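Submission sheet (multi-component)
Chains listed below:
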Amino acid sequence: MDTTINPPPATTDAEPHLHGDLAIWFFILAELMAFGVFFIAYAVTRAYNVEAFNAAQAGLDRNIGALNTILLITGSWGVVRSVQAARADRLVPAVRWMGVGLVCGLAFLVAKIFEYRAKFAAGLSMDTDTFHMFYFSLTFFHFMHVVLGVCILGILLLKLRRGGYGSHDVHGLETGAAYWHMVDLAWIVLFPLVYVMH
Amino acid sequence: MKYTSQAVAKPYFIGAMGLFVAQVLFGLIMGLQYVIGDFLFPHIPFNVARMVHTNALIVWLLMGFMGSAYYLVPEEAETELHSPKLALILFWVFLIAAALTVIGYLAVPYATLARITGNDLLPTMGREFLEQPTITKIGIVIVALGFLYNLSMTFLKGRKTAINTVLMIGLWGLAIFFLFSFYNPHNLVKDKFYWWWVVHLWVEGVWELILGAILAFVLIKVTGVDREVIEKWLYVIITLALVSGMVGTGHHYFWIGAPEFWQWWGSVFSALEPVPFFAMTLFAFNMVNRRRREHPNRAATLWALGTGVMAFLGAGVWGFLHTLAPVNFYTHGTQITAAHGHMAFYGAYVMVVITMISYSMPLMRGRAANSNKAQVVEMWAFWLMTVAMVFITLFLTAAGILQVWLQRVSDTPLGFMATQDQISLFYWMREVAGVVFLIGVVTYLVSFFIKGEERAA
Amino acid sequence: MTLPKNIADRVWLVMLAATLTTWALGSSGATGTWAVLVMLGLACLKGVLVILDFMELRHAPLLWRILLLGWLTLIAALIVLFYWIGST
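Outcome: structure written.
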C-alpha cells in the first residue's frame, strides 16, 4: 500500500470539504470570535494607556512565552502528522505523533503554571492594573482551552491505540485535531500581541 | 400522541395558561400604577403587583417546561412515563402551593407572610424574583425532585437521543441552580453575586438547553427533517449558549462590588450571547425551508419560527443593547432593562412553551391538528401578542432612553420621580399595548374552544 | 539543503523560524512601527499556515476559508489601527 503521506489520499481531495465535523467548525468560529473581541479590547485599551502598557509588558517573561509558542506549534505539527498517518493506516506512527501533540500540550501547561507562580510570587494579579487584567484574562482563557485540548488529545490517543481510527474513519480524529489547531491559532496572535509588540 | 402517559402534560399546560392570564392581568395593574400611583391602593400595592407579575411568570414557565418534558421525554425515549400518577399528584401539589403563595402575597403584608411562614428559621425571602416564602421554596424543590426522578427513570429505561439528553441536563441544571436561592449571606455583595447564579444561570444558561431541546423536538415533528441534521444544530446552539452565557454572568457583576475584571469578562462574553440566538433563528427557518412534509398544524410551525426571531430580538439584540459595561454604566436598572426583560421572556420562553402547547394539545385531544378555523384564530393570537409585545418593548425602550438622558446624562439631571413624570406618555402607550396583548392571550385561549372539521391524529 | 517532502514538516520549520525571529526581535528591544508590523506580519504568516495547512482549509469550501482568513485579517488590521492610534 502507498505509504507516502503527502498528498493525502485521493478521496479527500475529490471535492472541497471541511475536515472534521461541521459542528466543531461553528464552535471554532464562536471561540475565535471570543478571542478576537478580547484581542481588540486589548488593542483599544492599550491605545489609550500606551506608556502604562509598555512598562507593564516589559515585566513579562518573553522567553517562556516563546517557549510556549514553540510547544504549541510543535504540538499542532504532531497532531497533523498523526492524522496523516492514521489516514494511511500506519497506526504506530499515528499514536507516536499524537503522543508528541499531547506531551507538547502538557509541557505548555507546566510552563504556564511556572509563569503564573512567578507572577503571583511577585504579588501581581488581575487587580494590579489594566495590563495585568488583560494578561491574566487572556492567558488564563487560553490556558483553559489548552486544558480542554489536552483532554481531547488524550481521548484521541486512547482511541488510536485501540485502532479506532484509520483509513475507514478519521472523522472524530479530524474533529479533535481542528479544535487543537484553533487553540494554536489563538496563541499565535496572543503571543506577539501581549508579550512582545510595543 | 404515541404513549398514553404523555397526556399528563395536559393539566400542566392548562395550569400554565391560567397563571399566564393572572400574570398579564397583574402586569396591566402595575402598568397602570406607573401612571396612576394610587390605583388599587392599599389593596394591591405596586410591590405586591410586581411580585405576582414576575413570580406568576416564573411558575407558569416552570409548569410549561414540566408539561413539555412529560410530553417530550416518553416520546423520545420510546417508552411510557415511569409514573403518570406521581406526575399528576405533583401537579396538584405545585398548583396548590403556587395558589397559596399568591393568596399569601395578596392577603397579608409581606413582613407578616414572612413571619407566619417561619422565614426566621431559614431566611430566604425578600430578594427579587425569589420572594417566595421558604416553605414554598422547599415545596418547589420537592416537586422538582419528584419530577426529575420520574423523568430520569423514564429516560434511563428508554432510548437516549440528543434531544432528551439535552433536555434532562437542562432540567437538572435548573433544579441545582435553584438551590442557591437558599443561600442568603449577610454580605450584600455575596448575596447579589450568588443570587445571579439562580436568576442569570437559569435564563441565560440551563433554560436555553430546555428551549433548544423543545424547539428541536417540535421542528423534527413539523418538518420531518432528518434527526441527525437537527441534532447537530442543537449541539452547536447549546454549546454557544453555555460558553457565552456562563461567563456572561459577569455582565451582572459590573457595579455590585465584584472585582473590576468582570467588566471585561462580562462585556466580552455577553457580547457573544446573541450568537446562539441568531443560530437558533437560522436553524428554525432552515429546517422549515427544508421540510419534507406539510404538517397540518401550521400554527405550531408559526410559533416555532416566531420563537427563533423574537428570542434573537429580545434576548440577543435588546440584551446586547445595554450589556457593555460603558453603556450599562448609564442604563443600569432603567426602563431599558424592563424592555429587554419583556421581549426576552416573551420571545424565548413564553413562545417556546406556547409552541409546545400548540403542537401537543391537539394530539392530546385526539387529532393531528386543530380545524382550519381554530388555527386562523390562533394565528391571530400569535400576531396580536407578538406585535403588542414589540410595541411594549419599543415604548419601554423610548422611556428608558429618555430616562437615561434626563436623569443621568443631562447637565441638569432630574430626580427619579421627576423623570418618571416626564416619561409618563410612554407608560400610557405601553399600557395600551398591554391591553392589546391581553386581547391576544384571550384570543389564544378562545382558539382552543373553536370547533370545525378536524383531521384524525 | 533538501526540503522535507511532507508539507507539514515544512510548515513547522517556517513557523519555528518565524517564532524565533519574533523572540529575537523582542529580546533585542525592537520597538516602533516597523517592529510591530514585522511581528504582526510573522504572526499572520503563521496563522495563514495553520489555517490552510494544519486545519486543512486549503481544499475546503471557499466560505470557510474566507471566514477563518477573514478573522485573522480583521484582527490584524484592527490591531495595527489601534497601535497606530496609540502611537500618535
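Remark: Chain A has one domain: 19-196.
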